[in-house]
Design a protein that fits this description.
The complex is a heterodimer of chains A (368) and B (98).
Chain A (H helix, E strand, L loop, with lengths): L2 H5 L6 H17 L14 H22 L4 H20 L4 H29 L3 H21 L4 H23 L9 H18 L4 H22 L2 H4 L4 H26 L7 H31 L10 H19 L3 H29 L6
Chain B lengths: L2 H8 L3 E2 L4 E2 L6 E6 L3 E6 L9 H16 L4 E6 L12 H6 L3
Parallel strand pairs in B: 4-5
Antiparallel strand pairs in B: 1-2, 3-4
Classes of the chains: A mainly alpha (368), B alpha+beta (98).
Chain lengths: 368, 98
């Protein structure tokens, strides 16, 4: 048994995977595709994807880093929240009860994630940890809104701050490997302040909040393209190069999402809302996951990921299908949007298949 | 194992995100080498880094492979000193454009 398996109760991440599967089903129904089941979970797509899947996985990543047993309680609470939300989606009775309990558990998961970052900041008080901590606070806030009975679109700005701050903080940490560039820290700091401000403004005026958030996405995306270590590592080889290409392409989508929010602020439904959301959550966040999975899976599970060139196939399909989805939305071409969204999901499933095959080929690292 | 043999073994362990090995990144703090044991203390670049158990496993596996059977290998993560960019080797800095 490897060191990671001894330390990490990785089974706690299983609800996140279930949540992902049902989030994809819910996504199909919303596009809309007619399925013989699952109508009740269509409204849960965002909650299952962000709080159920990403919240649980990110909490596991941080609990693994902190190396404290209590930190895994956040993962457990979050995962249970996902199961309760799924029960709410599936159950013909007491649906509201399950959803409320699920939201309460997501809130506990959010509190746990904030505590994890408080512990990390106590050990290491740095700007990049503070940014990731800000993301955790936004995540808690999003879940509190769900618990208070607010709609999914009301929670979206806080989920967005959570994910962008978490990723931006990580990239800033890795930026220390590079020679500091004059003024770049100030620009990054300004973009993060705007990002945090957009979350607060969203409570009062969504249209203004979207503009501020869009501007911060634009600045952060441009900053990352110009300053991230991926600019260097893209010249290397193997998995390092693959990760860098994922990252750089994801930053382009962050800029696109920023421009979309700036030009179509305040949307809560419809084609522009679809573009505002999925350029960020599919274009930016999923490409970050595609890029980091070969690094994080060994870190969490102790399994070796055997990298091969065909890792690029799901990435190419993801970008192509998202381009199609965005174009179709702008052209009001519903069929194109439906197929683009479906192919987004195919790309994600293909990626999962590629990763499972790579882990099976790689085996355990302790054998090495 | 000699110090250079230990460092050569550890030099095969890459940080996958940066594409540079843990010796050139300056993560190795000190080494002990006895007749039938090898001890390594290393740091991480950040406490929020989830890679530490993975890098420890990789480093131990590389040392076991180089040392052969009968040698006890122990890699420990410490929090002091704190990693700074100055710990990177000239070779790593050159690769990263310093």
């Amino acid at each position: 048994m490897s060191e990671q398996e001894k330390q990490n109760p990785i089974f706690l991440v299983i609800p996140a995977l279930l949540s992902l599967v049902f989030a994809l089903v819910a996504g199909l129904i919303r596009l809309p595709w007619e399925l013989p089941f699952g109508d009740n979970i269509a409204q849960l797509h965002g909650a299952l994807m962000v709080s159920g899947f990403l919240g649980t996985v990110i909490a596991a990543e941080r609990a693994s880093a902190l190396g404290r047993v209590w930190a895994w309680l956040a993962v457990a609470a979050n995962g249970l929240g996902a199961l309760m939300a799924l029960a709410g989606g599936a159950s013909p009775i007491a649906q509201q009860f399950f959803l409320q309990v699920g939201a309460a558990l997501f809130v506990l998961g959010g509190i746990g994630l904030v505590c994890i970052f408080a512990a990390i900041l106590r050990r290491e008080t740095t700007f990049f940890n503070a940014i990731m901590g800000l993301g955790a606070v936004a995540y808690l806030f999003a879940n509190l809104l769900l618990l208070a009975g607010q709609s999914i679109p009301a929670a979206v700005p806080f989920w967005s701050v959570f994910l962008v701050a978490t990723i931006a903080g990580e990239r800033l940490e890795l930026n220390r490997f590079l020679r500091p560039r004059r003024g770049s820290g100030a620009v990054f700091g300004l973009a993060v302040i705007l990002l945090a401000a957009s979350g607060i403004i969203a409570l009062f005026d969504r249209s203004v909040a979207d503009r501020v958030m869009g501007f911060s996405f634009f600045v952060l995306g441009a900053w990352l393209i110009m300053n991230d270590i991926a600019r260097r590592t893209v010249r290397m080889s193997g998995v390092t190069r693959y990760t860098a290409i994922c990252l750089l392409s994801g930053y382009v989508w962050l800029i696109v999402s920023g421009l979309s929010l700036l030009t179509s602020p305040g949307e809560l439904a419809g084609s522009h809302y679809d573009v505002n959301l999925h350029t960020l959550y599919v274009g930016f966040v999923l490409t970050m996951i595609f890029g980091h999975a070969p690094i994080i899976v060994p870190a969490l599970t102790g399994k070796v990921v055997d990298y091969r060139g065909h890792f690029f196939l799901p990435l190419i399909l993801l970008h192509a299908s998202l381009l199609m989805r965005v174009g179709a939305n702008h052209a009001q071409w519903l069929t194109g949007r439906r197929w683009g969204g479906l192919l987004n999901e195919v790309a994600l499933l293909l990626f999962l298949g590629v990763m499972v095959a790579a882990v099976r080929r790689g085996g355990r690292e302790s054998a090495g | 194992m000699t110090e250079s043999e230990i460092l050569a073994a550890l030099g095969t362990v890459l940080d996958p995100e940066v594409g540079i090995d843990i010796v050139n990144l300056g993560l190795i703090v000190d080494l002990d080498s006895g007749a039938d044991s090898v001890g390594v203390r290393m740091i991480m670049t950040s406490v929020a880094c989830p890679m530490h158990a993975h890098l420890v496993s990789q480093a131990e596996a590389a040392l076991r492979k180089a040392a052969g059977p009968g040698v006890e290998v122990k890699v420990e993560v410490v929090t002091d000193p704190v990693w700074t960019p100055e710990r990177m080797s000239d070779e790593a800095r050159k690769k990263l454009g310093w």
